[in-house]
Amino acid sequence: MSEIIIDKNAYLHNLTQISNKVGDKEKVIAVLKDNAYGHGASLMAKLASEFGIKWACVKSIKEAEEISLFFENIIVLSHIPTGDENPKFIYAINDISNLLNLKKGLKVHLAIDTMMHRNGLKLGDLQSAFEIAKKMDLKICGAYTHFRSSDEFSAEYFVQKENFEIAKARLRELFDKFNLPKGVFHSHNSAALERATDLGDELVRVGIAQFGYAQFNDSLNLKKVLSLWAHRVSKRVLAKGECVGYGGVFVASLDLDIATYDLGYGDGLLRYCGIGDLHLANGQKVLGKMSMDSFSTIDAGSKVCVFDDANVWAEFFRTISYDILVKLSKDIPRKII
Fold first, then answer.
1. Which secondary structure element, helix H or strand E, spans residue 49, and what is its range?
2. 138, 159, 163, 215: which has the highest count of C-beta atoms within 10 A?
3. Residues 201 and 244 placed together within one structural domain of the fold
4. Count of domains forming the chain
């Protein structure tokens, strides 16, 4: 049966490297949305918690509940208010109207639009946000922004940093004005953390970096955490001139010992159409079109590593490592070693 192997030592190494740069593991927010980028949310939450991480971010209440036993503070980033929220969690305010529809008494973090123009409040909205929150008995306990180009060497990262500093100054005034405790701030994602030289008193939201993927020169010395393995369903000799798979795209130029393995696009892999050379971790190629539940390659024994670095497949499919990882089915068993 196919499986995903999680390297515990690699993960703890990455968290150590990140914490060392940040200065304190308690300043790290582990972003575990979308099944922890395909790694398995509950597995990674347990490891992060045991390491000493106190904060996590997820997409939805459902995701938050899955890891609720492991963290003191869980931020729900993409919640659409219903009025029936779980008060254990912290809710991101992506639009000022959210404040009018949340259950009373909740803790919230304000998303600040510093230039991405996707979600968040403008500087001019902040006074009104505090007034509405007071009226609706909501507790503003933090604020954050998201960089639109931190993974690119451009000035936009620095422009957004400055914009957020301006917003933070205004927020501090409002915390005082409304007699609220000092809130926490966070802005740096994985790529921004690599570029940062001074994080001040901010927390950091670390996503893909905790799993070993760097955007630049990997000054953090990260290690890949996940490897994907498939198990052999059958084997045979593919004679010279014979084809394998749908459409007969691959034709053997000599007799080959091949095998079919139990992973396909139904398990979340991007569908290989048989054109171009898509390599497995052992250097062999996928032969012919990928099926829904299987693929064929040169026989590598009872199991084969499909990839231990998602960048290999991301480069082939002209996408990013995130896209390869988050699509991995939750039904694939995950095992920590």
1. helix 41-51
2. 138
3. no
4. 2
Predicted local distance difference test score (pLDDT) of residue 264? 98
Residues within the annotated binding site for substrate? Answer: 118, 292
Q: Which of 27, 33, 168, 224 is catalytic?
A: 33
- In the residue annotation, 285 being an active-site residue is answered as no
Task: List the domain range (segments joined by +) for residue 29.
Answer: 8-211
322 is catalytic: no
In a domain, 92, yes or no: yes
Name the helix (H) or strand (E) containing 206: strand 203-206
* Cα–Cα distance, 122 to 149 (Å, whole number): 19
- On whether both 185 and 236 belong to a single domain, the answer is no
Residue 216 lies in a domain: no
Which residues fall within 8 angstroms of residue 177, CB to CB, at 6 or more apart?
A: 130
Pseudo-torsion of CA 204, 205, 210, 215, nearest 10°? Answer: -90
Q: Which residues does the annotation place in the binding site?
A: 118, 292
For position 216, what pLDDT does the model report?
Answer: 87
Which pLDDT does position 197 carry in this prediction? Answer: 85
What is the C-alpha end-to-end distance of the chain, expressed in Å?
A: 17
Helix (H) or strand (E) holding 261: strand 256-261
Amino acid in position 334? R
Q: Which residues contact 49 (CB under 8 A, 6 or more apart)?
A: 70, 71
- pTM recorded for the entire structure: 0.95
Catalytic residue among 135, 246, 330, 335: 246
Residue-level pLDDT at 217: 72
Q: For residue 100, what is the DSSP state? A: G
Mean pLDDT of each 10-residue bin along the chain, 337 residues long: 96 97 96 98 98 98 98 97 96 97 97 95 97 98 94 88 96 97 95 89 96 88 97 98 96 98 98 97 98 98 98 98 98 98
**Domain for residue 55, yes or no?**
yes
Q: Which of 75, 133, 130, 73 is nearest to 103 (CA)?
A: 133
